[in-house]
Design brief:
Length: 111
C-alpha cells in the first residue's frame, strides 16, 4: 500500500545581501510550522504543482525592515500588505524575526 505524498509548498526569498543570513531558513521553518501537513521545500527542489510562497524584503535600513509575502494557490495570487518591523542595526534578534515572520505567514489564506 503506497502512501500519498504530502502536498508541497515551495519557498523563495528576495532580499538584499544585508538581510539576516538565516532569514530564508527561518521563513521555511515557520511555513512548515504553520502548514504541518505540507512538505516545505526550496523552490529549486520543489515539484511542479507546489504552492509557491515568496518572502520579499522591500526595505532594509539599519532601523527598519519591511517585507511582503506573495502566495499562489488554486484560488489565484495573493499578497500580504507590506509589514514593517523595527530593528537595531541590520540584525534582528531571532525571536523578533520569528514573530515578524509568523505574523506575515498567519495572513496566508489556508490552502
Amino acid at each position: 500500500m503506497s502512501q500519498t505524498p504530502n502536498p508541497q509548498i515551495s519557498y523563495s526569498c528576495v532580499a538584499p545581501d544585508t538581510a539576516p543570513a538565516d532569514l530564508c531558513a527561518l521563513f521555511a521553518a515557520r511555513l512548515a510550522a504553520r502548514f504541518e501537513s505540507y512538505d516545505v521545500r526550496p523552490q529549486q527542489n520543489a515539484e511542479t504543482g507546489a504552492l509557491p510562497a515568496t518572502l520579499q524584503v522591500l526595505t532594509l535600513t539599519p532601523n527598519r525592515m519591511e517585507a511582503q509575502l506573495h502566495w499562489l494557490s488554486a484560488d489565484g495570487p495573493w499578497s500580504s500588505p507590506p509589514m514593517g518591523t523595527l530593528s537595531s542595526g541590520f540584525a534582528l534578534p531571532e525571536d523578533k524575526l520569528i514573530r515578524f515572520l509568523d505574523s506575515l505567514i498567519a495572513q496566508i489564506p489556508t490552502p
